[in-house]
Design goal:
0% strand; mainly alpha
Length: 104
Amino acid sequence: MAFRKKKVYKFSDEVMSKDALISLLFGVTALLIIIFSIVMGIVLKGNVPDIIGTLLLVSGIMGLTGLIFGFISYGDSEGGLLSKRASVIISIIDIVALVLLYLF
């Protein structure tokens, strides 16, 4: 008679790991800054104030920091994999958008 292997379920109190949450917040904030800067550039026809450049620099730093925290979050056992992937993808989108803005 073959014994069936019991399924082991793991329940976690936290839905997201703390590092993934920080990465997601940094990524979304950086993405909002980039979108705001693009809209300001379109509305003002390129005559934007100097603070927009500073905001884009800050969003670049936030994107890199979010990417680092996103990769660190993969080491945590708590939290779901979807939030970890989403935080890394959003941070990569931030960095790619900034590189494209710089090139064009």
